[in-house]
Amino acid sequence: MTPLLIGDLILLEVLNGFRNETQAKLVEGSPRRFEAIALLDPDLAVLPVPAPPRDHGSQDDRPSHRYCIERGHALLHSDRDFDPMERLLGWQIA
Q1: CA atoms 74, 75, 78, 80: torsion sign
Q2: pTM (2 decimals)?
Q3: Which of 58, 61, 75, 79 is the most buried (most CB within 10 A)?
Q4: What angle do the packed helices 62-71 and 8-16 form, to 10 degrees?
Q5: Contact at 8 Å (CB) between 93 and 82?
């Protein structure tokens, strides 16, 4: 079974999405069941990621894409805007 990793930036965004600290603390343990990884390190930070066409996909998740591409991981998501990236740019989508 392939492990499920969660990026540090993704964890930050999830926890920042709660209205107050009480809500965040209730949910904080769930993502921590997965291995948290640093999405950017000096080697990855300087590598370009092919930009999706302007009408496809988000510009905000490039660190996740860069990490997955360079480390050979599939990107697990629930955003249908990312679906064309598998076909257009060869990203592995889970």
Answers
A1: negative
A2: 0.63
A3: 61
A4: 150
A5: yes
